[in-house]
Specification:
The complex is a heterodimer of chains A (about 300) and B (about 425). Chain A has about 300 residues and is mainly α. Chain A has 14 helices and two strands. In chain A, strand 1 (about 45-50) and strand 2 form a beta hairpin. The relative contact order of chain A is 0.13. Chain B has two domains: about 30-145 and about 305-370, 3-Layer(aba) Sandwich (D-Maltodextrin-Binding Protein, domain 2); about 145-305 and about 375-430, D-Maltodextrin-Binding Protein, domain 2, CATH 3.40.190.10. Helices cover about 50% and strands about 15% of the residues of chain B. Chain B contains 19 helices and twelve strands. Chain B has helices at about 5-30, 45-60, 70-85, 110-115, 125-130, 155-160, 170-180, 200-205, 225-240, 245-250, 260-265, 275-280, 320-330, 330-340, 350, 360-365, 375-380, 380-400, 410-430; strands spanning about 30-40, 65-70, 90-95, 130-135, 135, 140-150, 190, 265-275, 285-290, 300, 305-310, 370-375. In chain B, the strands form four sheets. In chain B, strands 3, 6, 7, 8, 9 and 11 form a six-stranded mixed sheet that branches. Chain B has a two-stranded parallel ribbon with strand order 1-2. In chain B, about 45% of the residues are buried. The interface of A and B includes residues 245 and 266 of A.
């Protein structure tokens, strides 16, 4: 029996038992659905496995291939990083701007908040199909509107240079979800700070930079991490719209993983790819976390 | 022991023996349950599946069928999981993935001993390509599917263009498509092939992307026949007589073909399949069917498919499973599916009774069923569709996007050889070929 248990009173033990019991379902779920698959993935990454036949041990061969002999690994990683670099600032900035608008005190605001949030809960596949129509080069809404102002719109998803930016632009569609989180942060900023600043003669812009933004940094920090992870997991758009093309412009890392695992029956290599992506996301998250003490302001 | 007690003992033993025999008899009559995983579709809807079971169980009271009808999206995952675990797989199922084939029961002996069913009852190409593997009979072909060119007779008549015939060439395809194209009516003459693996690629090029022994890409993918095939594709794209990939994506709502454009009369010719054929017939379109064009002198190929209905190798009831398989994928089962659903049976004798069998378009469809199938090659080369095709897909994209000149086709194919060879070298030791 562990010493901490022996040192407890009967009442404390009863209380601890109740606590563990309450924790048990979650702990069970974590072990079965998260911890075990991660450990299993690590094992499978050291094997060659077609999914239906027993895995064959190949040691570090999958990793060697990944880093030395696989051009698709690098190109899919590059496409993914480019997408993250494009979509992440877009979503963070536009989400904040939308939240500022949704924070105005005007009639019917709850309606607007609901409308902007709806896209965040619509299926990614349905949204993708809709964007195919939006961005169709000849008959799509976007190019038709551009043609009214004399601009010849690009071929969007069907152009090697525009395909990836098109997918990034699509991600704005779900910015309402981020805006709602920002909105919660905005409404937590004490009103008296704005009143005091206003009395001191601070204009709107100054109040935003000196009060809103610093006090919103915890929310921004949260959003940055969530959106960062989300951006690295870009898949549905490539799967539904571009199939990784044209010319592999949207051949994202997760799409590559999917093709290796479920089309190429190369589950061992796919496991190695999955672990690499996990490491990259974890590295980025740790980096953001480590730098947070320099720019995230906690009032307490 | 007295004589009486001996007689009593004997009677008791006899009674016990009779009782045990009776129990045994009851046990022997307990029906065997066969598990079956399947999918509901337009060809084989749930009522047809239920009707097959009902008819089979009426004929075989000693066998019960426990069916699970599942969504296609879940089917692959469940099969992978069950086969990978080595337990829990159904006795009967579609085994459509190549890595699943080693887990099928070899039914060669069952079929040879079957007085009511033989491999000769099926379309030969379909049986060879979809029911045999590595010299084993791994299932029975269920339904037939194929690609062919559907042409809209009204569009042809309006443009004053003769209907295509079965012996037409790729060059004629471009000529006819160009003649039918009418920008004022937003009408294209014909569609484009969807990928280099389709029959049209082999018909035109009469070549393969790499050697039969899966060792060499050089000289095949960039060989003269392949260059000719890709150059034809370049000419087709440059003709402006086909919708762009963006147009097809938006205007053709069917995932596998632009049937909507065809039905609307905005596409004079379209490479579609028998499911689309039924859709167009039901929509009242006046159309005909011809095989995809091919270069005279080259063997004609067709891109065709069947569902492979198989028995799991781990079944505990192989004989009973075969009884059901041969019923379901045999004449009775396929006829039920044809009558209730829209199945095109893989048995010529049953397909002859198809409701529209006498129609012009159906006769055209029948004309493609005996051609050599691209599957004949592809089935032995599992690395083509996944790994190698991905490595060479840039050549296809460059032509589709109009990013290379006609005289750059050779150099483009040459540049694909190295990645294709690397993909082949990685894949073959893993999946075979």
């Amino acid at each position: 029996m562990p010493s901490f248990w022996r040192n407890m009173t009967a009442q404390e033990r009863r209380s601890a038992r109740t606590g563990y019991l309450a924790l048990a379902p979650w702990a069970f779920g974590f072990l079965v659905f998260y911890a075990f698959p991660i450990v299993a993935t690590f094992y499978f990454s050291l094997t060659q496995w077609t999914l239906v036949d027993p895995p064959v041990w190949v040691g570090l061969d999958n990793y060697t291939r990944m880093f030395t002999r696989d051009p698709l690994f690098l190109s899919s990683l590059k496409a993914t990083l480019l997408f993250v670099a494009l979509s992440l600032p877009l979503k963070l900035v536009l989400g904040l701007m939308l939240a500022l608008l949704l924070n105005l005190k005007i009639a019917g605001m709850n309606f607007f908040r609901t409308v902007f949030f709806i896209p965040a809960v619509i299926s990614g596949v349905a949204v993708s199909l809709m964007w195919i129509w939006f961005l169709q080069p000849d008959t799509g809404v976007v190019n038709t509107l551009l043609s009214y102002v004399g601009v010849q719109g690009p071929y969007w998803f069907w152009d090697r240079d525009w395909a990836l930016p098109s997918v990034a632009i699509m991600s704005i569609w779900k910015v309402g979800g981020a805006a709602i989180i920002y909105l919660a942060g905005l409404q937590n900023i004490p009103a008296h700070l704005y009143e005091a600043a206003e009395i001191d003669g601070a204009g709107k812009w100054r109040r935003f930079w000196r009060i809103t933004l610093p006090l919103l940094t915890p929310t921004l920090f949260f959003q940055l991490i969530i959106e960062l992870i989300d951006a690295f997991k870009i898949f549905t758009e490539a799967f539904v719209i571009t199939k990784g093309g044209p010319l592999k412009a949207t051949y994202f890392f997760l799409y590559y993983f999917y093709e290796e695992a479920f089309r190429n029956f190369n589950m061992g290599y796919a496991s190695a790819l999955a672990l690499f992506l996990l490491a990259v996301i974890m590295g980025c998250t740790v980096f953001v976390y480590r730098t947070s003490d320099r720019w995230v302001y906690y009032e307490n | 022991m007295t004589a009486l007690s001996f007689r009593k003992s004997l009677a008791l033993v006899c009674a016990l023996a009779l009782l045990l025999a009776g129990i045994g008899g009851v046990a022997a009559q307990e029906p065997v349950t066969i598990t079956w995983w399947t999918l509901a579709s337009a060809e084989s809807p749930e009522p047809a599946i239920r009707a097959v079971i009902e008819a089979f169980e009426a004929e075989h009271p000693d066998i019960k069928i426990d069916v699970t009808i599942m969504a296609e999206s879940a089917y692959g995952d469940l099969m992978n999981t069950a086969l990978g675990a080595g337990e829990g797989a159904p006795d009967i199922a579609y085994f459509w993935e190549t890595p699943w084939l080693p887990h099928t029961l070899d039914i060669t002996d069952h079929l040879e001993a079957d007085p009511d069913l033989s491999r000769d009852d099926y379309f030969a190409e379909y049986f060879t390509n979809w029911a045999t593997w590595n010299g084993r009979v791994v299932g029975l072909p269920f339904t037939v599917g194929a690609n062919f060119v559907m042409y809209n007779k009204d569009v042809f008549d309006e443009a004053g263009v003769d209907y295509p015939t079965a012996d037409w060439t790729p060059e004629e395809y471009i000529e006819i498509a160009t003649a039918l194209t009418d920008p004022a009516k937003r009408r294209w003459g014909g569609d484009r092939p969807r990928g280099p693996f389709r029959a049209v690629w082999r018909n035109i090029g009469a070549t393969k992307p790499y050697s039969d022994d899966s060792s060499t890409v050089e000289g095949y993918f960039n060989g003269p026949e392949s260059v000719a095939a890709y150059t034809w594709l370049w000419d087709l794209v440059a003709s402006g007589a086909t919708p762009t990939p963006a147009d097809i994506e938006v205007l053709g709502t069917e995932g596998t073909g632009p049937v909507d454009l065809f039905i609307a009369g905005r596409l004079g010719m379209a490479t579609l399949n028998n499911g689309h054929m039924i859709t167009a017939a039901n929509a009242g379109v006046n159309f005909g069917i011809v095989p995809e064009p091919h270069v005279p002198g080259n063997e004609r190929f067709v891109h065709a498919w069947a569902l492979r209905a198989s028995i799991w190798a781990g079944t505990e009831h192989p004989d009973e499973a075969y009884e059901f398989l041969s019923f379901w994928a045999g004449p009775e089962g396929q006829r039920i599916n044809m009558e209730i659903g829209a199945l095109m049976p893989s048995l010529p004798a049953v397909l002859a009774d198809y409701p529209d069998a006498d129609s012009d378009y159906f006769q055209g469809f029948m004309g493609v069923l005996d051609a050599t199938q691209t599957a004949e090659w592809r089935a032995d080369h599992p690395c083509w569709r996944g790994a190698v095709i991905r490595a060479v897909s840039d050549a296809w994209d460059l032509i589709m996007l109009g990013e290379i000149e006609r005289d750059e086709v050779q150099a483009t194919l040459d540049s694909m050889v190295e990645p294709a060879q690397a993909a082949l070298d990685e894949c073959v030791p893993r999946l075979g070929g």
